[in-house]
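PROTEIN DATA CARD
Card holder: Fibronectin type-III domain-containing protein
Chain length: 427
Origin: Oreochromis aureus
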Amino acid sequence: FRPRYEHNVYECMSLCFCPAGGADGSEVPPPQNVTTKTLNTNYTLSWDWAPGAAGTHAVTFTTQYVPRYQLRSKKKKTPNWITACNQTSHRSCDLTRFNLHYLGIFVLRVQATVDGQHSEWAQKEFCPDKEAALGPPSNVTLAPAGSDLDVVLIDPLTSNNTSMREHVPDLYYHVQYWERQADGQASPHKQLRINTTMVTLPGLKAWTWYCVRVQSRCDFYSKISDFTVPHCMQTEGSIPWWNIFLYFLGSLLFFFLIVLGTIYALFRCCKTVKDVLNPSDQMPSHLKKYLCSSPGSDIPRLLTPDSESELLCEGVTICPPPAVPEIHIPPAEELAAPPSGLEPNSSVRHSRQDSSSSGDSGVYSSGGGSSGSSALKQLSAVRHNHMGSNDSFKGLLDPERVNLREMTAHLKSQPEVADEGVVDVCV
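Structure generated from the sequence above:
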């Protein structure tokens, strides 16, 4: 192994061809353009092969490697070649799993085999520290820090998921950041060199979008990695008072609409339930007594086939209310003059009192000695005789003249007696 920082660096040997062990001068051509494809500690040896060189026969390849110091050792005459890929048909061989030392120098060789005949070995020296490409940071994270941005990096990783800083101590990062324009025009890039995995980008504007990309570098062998994918983020800052006021009004309006909608939905639900359980159209009273179990109940009662209502009631007929006959009161002169055949001091006056339910009538003497029942009996007799003839009233009334005004006052103090009809009586 060579020292890491020695000034007289061993130069890797160029591609050379050596005869295969035991070869008898076969004409199988060796592989061409043997190169290594590397990234951090991932190594792959690849080569080219002429398509028509093997004719119709299949071709296979064998890859081996050995540390270079074994070839120069005088004590060890025969080096110990390690076979990485044996008789494979691929044009490449992965050497990552062998964990080649990053600071070592190795000799790689590959041989072609066609129909049992071997070609010469195509050899190449490989120096990982010098030839292995350096990869960009494995992860880039942006975080707002007020009006600035924090950039957090993760070192490039090896094949064993360890940091490449273990193999490249002088690793550092080149950071580029710029303001993202709305019209898509490119803005000037600002550059920053950092040796750590975290940095705060200075001099940024508040509430502005910035993009960042990073690459890994090592100056010892002038290694420069590719840039990472640009990561963009908006910076923050102090919120203006009018913006806070607008947020407050928006949230207030939002919750007001939610509460109003909830109240309206509850009101509609309650109204619907009320209309279903207690409809506004009530059942007629003359039907309730037949459908309900009791007169005071509003719950309909189901009728059985053998119920009395179905047996006794064939139908329901709604009749109009009976017409109330008109009452004609004769003039006072006729009431004052006694009919023929009666004594001059005898008179009868009929009074009618209006009420909301029915009319009452009665005859009382001026002396007030007759009771309400005797007056009703006398009035019935008068009505009966009046239906036949006016002359039948002779001799039926008291010869005393009845005072109409006193009778009216007396009737108001008496209880009302319901009557089914009113008949005009003229005396």
